[in-house]
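Give me the fold.
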Amino acid sequence: MPHKDLERYLETFNEEFKQKHIEHKRRPFEFISRYSTEFNQPVNLSSNFAKYIFEWFEKRAKEGAHSIGSLYTSAYYYDAQFWELSIPVFFGTVKLNSLDSLKDISDIDKEKILKNEKQKLDYVAFWSDCIDYAMGFSELRQKTDIDSFGKSLLLSANEELRSATNNLLSLPVQKRAILNCRAAVETSLKAYIALKRGLTEKEAKKFNHNLFKPFDETIKISGNKSLDLLRNRLKNLPNIEARYEEQTLTFLELWNGYVLAQCISSFVIRDFTGHNSLSIMLD
C-alpha cells in the first residue's frame, strides 16, 4: 500500500476508534487486525510495518499507553518450580514454537522436555489449551449477542484463572491458588450451561457449589463423552469449605488442580469458538 494511502487509512480508523472510545493501547492491535483481515495479509509484530503502526499510534496517545504485554500468561510446572508460560500477541497466520513460550527455562531443559515423549505431549497439550483459551476468550468477550449472565460468569471464571496463575508465579508460591482453580472450574461450567441453554442466577445457586452436578450437566448438553475422563479429577479440587482453611497442598497437587482448571476452561471456549490448535499440531 502506498505511504499516502496508508496514512489516510490510519487517520480514518483512528477517528473511528475515537468515536467508539477504544483505549489508546488497543488501537494499533485493532488496526493491524483489521488490516490483516481486509487485505488477507498476516502482520508479524516484529516487522518494520508493525513498528511503524505502533509508532504512529504512540505519537497520538497518552505517554506509556502502548506498552505491549502478552496475549495470555499461564504457569507451567517443571523441575519442582512454576515457570511463566507466555502466549505472544499475534495477528494473521504465523508459525509459533510452543517452547518459545517458556522464556525463563534454559535451552538445555527445553531439549530435555522434547526428548521425554510423555512430557513433550503433556506440554504440547497444555500449551494448546492455553493458546486456544487466549484466542477464544478474546473473541467471546467482545460478543454482544450472547447470554448476559453466561458472559458475566465467563468473565468471572477468567479472573479466577488469572488469579491462580498470579498466585502460582509469585514467590513464595501462594497455595490458595487451588481455591482460584476450584472457582474457575465451577464458574466455567455454569457459564457453559448459561450460554448453551440459559441459566438464571437462582438456578445457578441450586448447584450449591457441587462441581459434579454442573459437570454432568455440561456433558449432557455438549454430548462430549470424552469429558468423562476428567470427572474423577474433580476430586483434586477442595470443597468450598476449604476457603476458610490454610492450604497445605504440594506443588504437584497444585499443578494437577491448575491443569484441570485450564483444561475445562479451554473446553468451554473451544466449544463456542472452534479453536483447536492441538488437532492442527498433530496433523
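The chain is about 60% helix and 5% strand.
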